[in-house]
Amino acid sequence: MQFEHLGVSPRIHPEAVIAPTAVISGDVVIGPGCQVLHGAVITAEGGPIVLGENVVVMENALIRGSAVHPVHVGSHVLVGPMASVSGATIADEVFLATGTRIFNGARIGAHSEVRINAVVHLRTVLPERSVVPIGWVAVGDPAEILSPDRHERIWELQQELDFPGYVFGLDRDTPDLMVQLTERYTASLARHMHDRRLD
User: Which Pfam families match (predicted)?
Assistant: First the structure.
């Protein structure tokens, strides 16, 4: 399914193959040889998404760009089933395994691997040929790659990255943080009310 969002329609190379149950919405460019499988969602929420050549987006993966955090995925990248990429830059020949989470402002260097259920956090930079092991967390610039049992260190680095400020423009100490965050986000997402299905 393809949708025009904010007046912009997806541009899909004729050699790309999009499953009939995939959703492609808004300012999305999909290059030649790409495969987008069943249940995948590629949604440009006001900012562009570009997939290079021969990118595979597997079942139920999510790629989301925003006006502040566009997405660029290089060529020969595999985005595994149930993986999530939000507002990040992925270089060429990167493997994002099943269930990986890549957050806003992250940059992943060429030939890197983010293995099953691993996380590359907000504004984190992975150099070329990095490996984030199964279930581990990469945080910071330069990235520290930490096992999930290192929660205190992960949180220490995470606080400095300021998720609510960076993504939503809100101070973490705002007394009604979740009220303001959800009201801003629902107002932004309400722009989909005027989307137009193209196929």
Answer: Hexapep
